[in-house]
Amino acid sequence: MEPIPFVDLTTEWAALKHETLARVEAVFDHGRFIMGPEIAELEGRLAEMVGVRHAIACASGTTALLMAMMALEIGPGDEVIVPAYTFAAPVECALLLGASPVLVDVEPPSGLVDVDRLEKALTPRTRAIVAVSLYGAPPDFSAINALADAHGIAVIEDAAQSFGGSREGRQSGSLARLGCTSFFPTKVLGGAGDGGAVFTDDDALACCLTEIRDHGQSGKYRHVRTGVNGRMSSITAATLLVRLKTLEAAIGNRRAVADTYDALLSDARNAGRLDFSAPDPCVASARSQYALLAENRDRVATDLRKAGIQTAVHYPEPLHLQPAFSHARRSGPLSGASRMAEKVLCLPIYPGLTASQVTRVAEAVLRSVK
Ligand SMILES: Cc1ncc(COP(=O)(O)O)c(C=O)c1O
Asked: Domain end: 188, 211, 244, which one?
């Protein structure tokens, strides 16, 4: 049997290779490898797609989160609320700025922050809530923004996994005061290299972010605030501009794969042999991952590996159990995060996956959980 990899970037790029290389060649011709004309072009396209006034391209999704927190002037003494089950980046950024992350539980099987728990996590020191749109699906930002507005705190959407998704007709990235995304190669919009962006409608924040991205400079060698080197390379921007052309089709393919998994696995879900999120009519997920929960997750992963199917666990440990973050304040029990880490298994999902491959994966899962 042909192996089915977890991701297959070479096939995705193959059709775009010629055009991409031509755009990369153009960068060599003009020689502006950093902040060349591709950056402004990309920012214009991203802002238009996300439906915001400003997109600030930067070096990575982590840099985007760091810059967003810096623009909000988060620092020592401040608390930043983060879901206990996500990638480490938002917690790292809060800690790097001397602030204290506060971990809040998530709800299986979506892995999205438990919105009802957010209010209890607030203290007079809370400055921001980072809400993560995990696996491509944004959580309930209407409720999160309403809570934050009532308490005068900021919301940052971590849209690293959800670029191209939407909630209640609004694009992911535009769902909070600041949206941050990643263009890491395996993301829904992945470049040929690290990259990220911050989105906002706030002109003053956008100006701050542009300065922070380039060492806090308002002009050459005029440092008006503390910044970082958060710039994106022109070559990465060039590759993203090509990749953007097929984004809609790529997300359509991802959704078709996810819908097929949903349909083929629904009986097993109804019988309680596995679990996954039911479609939410408010959400159009970007379907960056197809995550299911299985009681005997490791055995399912082994069975699939034996059948030539690669899977992944995003993520095997919740943040409160990571050695680097175990001191972070926990707001209430984090049993949802622990359950996700114990049970979650991500199946292959990418545009080039064929219908017969999807069926093969689903049948292997069904054999394993029967
Ligand atoms: C939810 C989330 N936030 C932040 C990041 C960080 O993005 P980057 O790897 O581009 O720094 C990632 C990347 O995996 C992510 O999944």
From this structure: 244
Q: Among 62, 91, 133, 228, which is best to mutate for testing ligand 1, by the most ligand atoms less than 8 A from CB?
A: 62
Q: Give the position of tokens 């491959």.
A: 357
Q: Are 186 and 13 in contact (CB under 8 A)?
A: no
Distance 158 CA to ligand 1 centre (A): 8
- Band (pLDDT 50/70/90 cuts) for residue 33 is very high
On whether both 217 and 298 belong to a single domain, the answer is: no
User: What is the number of the ligand 1 atom nearest to the C-alpha of 183?
Assistant: 10
Q: Average pLDDT in the 349-359 region? A: 96
Query: 27 and 126 share a domain?
Result: yes
In a domain, 94, yes or no: yes
| CATH for 141 | 3.40.640.10
Do residues 57 and 238 touch, judged by C-beta distance below 8 A?
no
What residues does ligand 1 touch, defined as CB less than 6 Å away? 60-62, 86-87, 89, 132, 158, 160-161, 182, 184, 194, 196
CA of 120 to the centre of ligand 1 (A): 27
On average, the pLDDT of the chain sits at: 97
Q: How far is the centre of ligand 1, averaged over its atoms, from the C-alpha of 58 (Å)? A: 13
Q: How far is C-alpha 183 from the geometric centre of its chain's CA atoms?
A: 9
Q: 88 CA distance to ligand 1 centroid (A)?
A: 8
Alpha helices in the chain (DSSP H): 9-14, 17-30, 37-50, 61-71, 89-96, 118-121, 141-151, 203-213, 234-244, 247-270, 297-306, 335-343, 355-369
Q: Is residue 283 domain-shared with residue 199, that is, in the same domain? A: no
111: tokens are 């892995």
Using the mean position of ligand 1's atoms as its centre, give its distance from the Cα of residue 186 in Å. Answer: 10
In this model, does residue 93 exceed pLDDT 90? Answer: yes
Q: What is the pLDDT of residue 1?
A: 82
The pLDDT-based confidence of 287 (bands split at 50, 70, 90) is very high
Nearest ligand 1 atom to the CA of 62 is 11
Mutate to test the pocket of ligand 1, among 69, 181, 184 (most ligand atoms within 8 A of CB): 184
**CA–CA gap between residue 151 and residue 47 (Å, rounded):** 28
- The parent domain of residue 46 ranges over 9-244
